[in-house]
């Protein structure tokens, strides 16, 4: 028998407990006005497990009936006091508006974000995302950063939130494994984020096409003790002023006349070349 005793079969779509899954938008869940009350939705037992392992507090579960004693049994047994709403596959699809991955969702409370200076305290390889707006790209970048030896990720306010459901799903839960935060009010208004991370001892590397670009395997670049890798928006890339302020402008050599890679693909190449695992091979 499943350890969770708070299992409730869905009979009323208007149950207030289902608002999180059926009626609140991502921005409403984020709750910018009262961030301490913010929530997010994790999808699939594996991703939910990674969130639990990282110390995130569950609010409720939405689980396909057959998975209560199946794939979701392990995570439910860890949370015996957390309500579980359950129904068949088609009912849940009609409720949420999308097919659920592995038949399980979990609404969880957000944690306060660390300051960027605290995040960087012991990090030697960091990622900076500037106006990366697509949650799929953000999720893919997080997954590559976690897998390929980066220590932390810093985001500008215009980036898609890493705890949006799609970003979490694409990242396979690595948003709970690699530290991250947004640049915030602790920066002086006159300071750019490039100045802020350089003040912490980082050399900055802008991923961009430029006549001044160095190859991604440039020996000086790879030898830097503390390095920040900057990636720009999907359409325009990094602003010219940001590129000019960086210590390096870095390019990935292309073949067949291709001029560039998608930001998520470029990030994987950059992290493979510049992440910690280069020193372990």
Radius of gyration: 21 Å
Helix content: 25-40%
**Unreliable stretches covering 5 or more consecutive residues:** none
Structural class: alpha/beta
Please give the number of β-strands. 12
Quick one: biggest sheet? 7 strands, parallel
* Distance between the first and last residues' Cα: 47 Å
So how many helices? 13
Shape: elongated
Mean pLDDT: 91
- Order of strands, main sheet, comes to 8-7-6-11-9-12-10
Along the chain, the helix and strand elements come as EHHEHEHHEHEHEHEHEHEEHEHEH
Briefly say what this structure is.
The protein has 281 residues and is an alpha/beta fold.
Could you describe the 3D structure shown?
- With 281 residues, the protein is an alpha/beta fold.
- The protein has 13 helices and twelve strands.
- The chain has helices at residues 19-22, 26-30, 45-53, 65-68, 73-78, 89-96, 116-119, 135-147, 165-171, 193-198, 219-222, 240-245, 263-274, and strands at residues 7-9, 39-43, 58-64, 84-87, 104-109, 125-129, 152-155, 180-182, 203-207, 214-215, 227-231, 248-251.
- It has a seven-stranded parallel sheet with strand order 8-7-6-11-9-12-10. Strands 1-4-3-5-2 form a five-stranded mixed sheet.
- β7, α9 (165-171) and β8 form a beta-alpha-beta unit.
- α8 runs parallel beside α13.
- The longest helix is centred in the middle third of the chain and has 13 residues, at 135-147.
- 40% of the residues are buried.
